[in-house]
Amino acid sequence: MTLALALASAGCFLWFGLYNYYGERTAANTSGLAQLIGDSTFVRVGDDPQTNVHRTAEAAMPPILDEYLTLYNRNKRLIGWIQIADTNIDYPVMQTVNNEYYLDRNFSQEYDRNGSIFMDYQCSVHPRSDNLIIYGHHMKSGAMFGNLQKYESEAFFKEHPLIQFDTIYEKGTYQVMYAFRSRVFREDEIVFKYYQFIDVNSADEFNSNMREMAALSYYDTGVSATYGDAILTLSTCDNEDELGRFVVVAKKVR
Questions:
Q1: What is the DSSP pairing of strand 162-167 with strand 231-238?
Q2: How many CB atoms neighbour CB 132 within 10 A?
Q3: CA distance 193 to 183
Q4: Are 110 and 22 in contact (CB under 8 A)?
Q5: Which H or E element spans position 51?
Q6: What is the pLDDT of residues 132-188, one digit of tens each?
């Protein structure tokens, strides 16, 4: 019994040690990456189609913003940067060919239980999808999207109505419209699935999605969108339900 308790205690210390290690490493790495915004160490270079999943020889792409060139040259899976005032959400946004790779890898492509903030692989920033969906873990430490659920509070929304999300091609400020809880549903369930709203074929389809999200929202922000507006959706795990998700939806205002 004593040995079992000792092993259990050692296991707990090891788990907390690793948790703290990855948390501290993530914070240090992110701080270092933020300092590279606007850095001119790297000059503009030609794109390597083998490592660049966003820019292809077949598509004419806009130039990458100078302030993100250094970061982009470090990892060509970079697709943008997201920041929300008075939270620790201040991270690079990654994108690759699936939604699994960055669940447990950081910007440097090392194993990291915090993962990275990443965009749904089905989204396109150029030409732009109607809705860009960005995912991040809800870490107890507050890392990644651990602070996103602050938007459950209407008071927090009123003090923080704007989200800054720059793609590597253009800067963007978004105004929060909805904050709600949902979940990942079975494929055969006939229900609104916010994570399937990426592109729409008509104004009616767009408006239908807006109505569904407005009905789920915790409060009325007084903000709405019309067909043609650029939408941003932030999604994280909900600690109340294994398949639950907490979601914040905003529209581009500048």
A1: unpaired
A2: 26
A3: 8
A4: no
A5: none
A6: 999 999 999 999 999 999 999 999 999 999 999 999 999 999 999 999 999 999 999
Alpha helices in the chain (DSSP H): 2-34, 69-74, 154-159, 203-216
Residue keyed to tokens 């923080």: 160
Q: Which residues contact 155 (CB under 8 A, 6 or more apart)?
A: none
Q: Is residue 116 situated within a structural domain? A: yes
Give the Cα separation of 95 and 187 in Å (integer).
Answer: 24
Number of domains in the chain: 1
Establish if 60 belongs to a structural domain.
no
Range list of β-strands (E), the chain = 78-83, 90-94, 117-119, 131-135, 162-167, 173-183, 231-238, 241-252
Q: Which domain holds residue 114?
A: 77-252
Q: What is the pLDDT of residues 47-70, one digit of tens each?
A: 444 444 555 545 688 999 999 999
Query: pTM of the entire structure?
Result: 0.83
What CATH number corresponds to the domain at position 95? 2.40.260.10
Torsion of the alpha carbons at 69, 70, 72 and 73, rounded to the nearest 10: 110
